[in-house]
C-alpha cells in the first residue's frame, strides 16, 4: 500500500486526495503508518481510508503537510481543538506550534491621524502602533516647497518655479509630522507647501484635499475607520482613528 502514488482519505465524511509522499513526510505520524496498514484507527473502505475525525480541521493539517507552514484564517479560533487533532495524528511539532497562540493570532494594528485645519495651512500628525506601517507612509508622502506670489497661493496648480522636496519630521519611529498650505514670507511672496501621496501623482496644497486623499489611501490599504473626535475645538484639531487586523506571517517548519 505504501507504494501507491495517490491516496484518498475520508475524514468525518470529507474527502481528501493527496500524494502518498505528502503523508509520509513525518514517518512517525499515524498517517504515515496508515499507509503500511499499521494503524487500526484507519479503515480501508472501497479504496479509501476512513477515519472518524473532524474533516474541517483536517483541512488545516493537510495544508501544513503540503506547505510545511502554519497559516490560519484571520478569524480562526479553534486552536485547542486543532492542537488536539494534530496530537491525534501524531504531528507533535504542529501541536507545539499551535500551543503558542500568540504567534499565530492576527494582531490588531492601530493608526491615528490628527489634523489641524487653519485658514491657510494644515498640520498633520500620524501615530501608528506598527513602526513598519509608519515607515511605509513616510515613503509614500512627499512635501514640496517653493515660493510664489500672494495672488496665486490658493491655485490648484503649483507654481512654475522649481519645487524642492522637504524631509518629513519623524519625532519617533511610531509617528510622522508634515504640513501643507502657505506661510507669509516677504512682500507679496508666500512659501507654499504641497503634499503628494503615492500612488497619486497630484501635488495638493489645500488641507481638506490632503486629508481626503490620506484617509482614502488608508482605507485602500485595509484600515477601517473606527472613530472621529474633536481634540481641540479652539485650534480646530480633529482626530481620526483606524484599526486593521494584521495577519502574522506563516510559521515555517
Automatic annotation (TrEMBL):
Biological process (GO), any one = monoatomic ion transmembrane transport
Q: Which GO terms describe its cellular component?
A: endoplasmic reticulum
- UniProt KW keywords: Ion channel, Ion transport, Transport
* UniProt key word Ligase: no
The BTB domain is annotated at 5-106
One Pfam family from the record: BTB_2
| Highest taxon of source | Eukaryota
Alphabetical list of InterPro entries matching this protein: BTB/POZ_dom, SKP1/BTB/POZ_sf, T1-type_BTB
Q: Which PANTHER family match?
A: POTASSIUM CHANNEL REGULATORY PROTEIN, POTASSIUM CHANNEL TETRAMERIZATION DOMAIN-CONTAINING
Name of this chain's protein? Putative potassium channel regulatory protein
Record organism: Chlamydotis macqueenii (Macqueen's bustard)
Amino acid at each position: 500500500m505504501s507504494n501507491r502514488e495517490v491516496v484518498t482519505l475520508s475524514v468525518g465524511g470529507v474527502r481528501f486526495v493527496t500524494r502518498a509522499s505528502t503523508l509520509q513526510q513525518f514517518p512517525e505520524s499515524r498517517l504515515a503508518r496508515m499507509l503500511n496498514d499499521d494503524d487500526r484507527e484507519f479503515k480501508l473502505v472501497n479504496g479509501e481510508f476512513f477515519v472518524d475525525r473532524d474533516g474541517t480541521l483536517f483541512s488545516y493539517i493537510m495544508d501544513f503537510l503540503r506547505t510545511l507552514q502554519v497559516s490560519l484564517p484571520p478569524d480562526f479560533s479553534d486552536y485547542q481543538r486543532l492542537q488536539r487533532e494534530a496530537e491525534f495524528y501524531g504531528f507533535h511539532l504542529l501541536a507545539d506550534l499551535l500551543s503558542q497562540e500568540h504567534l499565530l493570532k492576527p494582531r490588531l494594528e492601530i493608526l491615528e491621524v490628527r489634523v489641524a485645519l487653519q485658514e491657510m495651512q494644515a498640520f498633520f500628525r500620524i501615530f501608528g502602533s506598527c513602526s513598519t506601517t509608519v515607515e511605509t507612509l513616510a515613503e509614500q508622502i512627499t512635501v514640496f516647497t517653493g515660493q510664489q506670489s500672494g495672488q496665486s497661493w490658493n491655485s490648484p496648480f503649483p507654481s512654475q518655479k522649481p519645487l524642492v522636496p522637504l524631509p518629513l519630521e519623524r519625532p519617533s519611529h511610531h509617528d510622522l509630522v508634515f504640513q501643507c498650505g502657505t506661510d507669509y514670507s516677504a512682500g507679496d511672496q508666500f512659501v507654499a507647501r504641497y503634499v503628494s501621496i503615492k500612488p497619486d501623482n497630484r501635488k495638493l496644497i489645500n488641507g481638506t484635499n490632503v486629508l481626503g486623499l490620506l484617509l482614502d489611501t488608508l482605507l485602500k490599504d485595509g484600515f477601517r475607520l473606527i472613530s472621529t473626535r474633536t481634540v481641540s475645538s479652539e485650534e480646530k484639531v480633529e482626530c481620526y482613528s483606524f484599526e486593521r487586523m494584521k495577519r502574522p506571517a506563516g510559521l515555517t517548519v
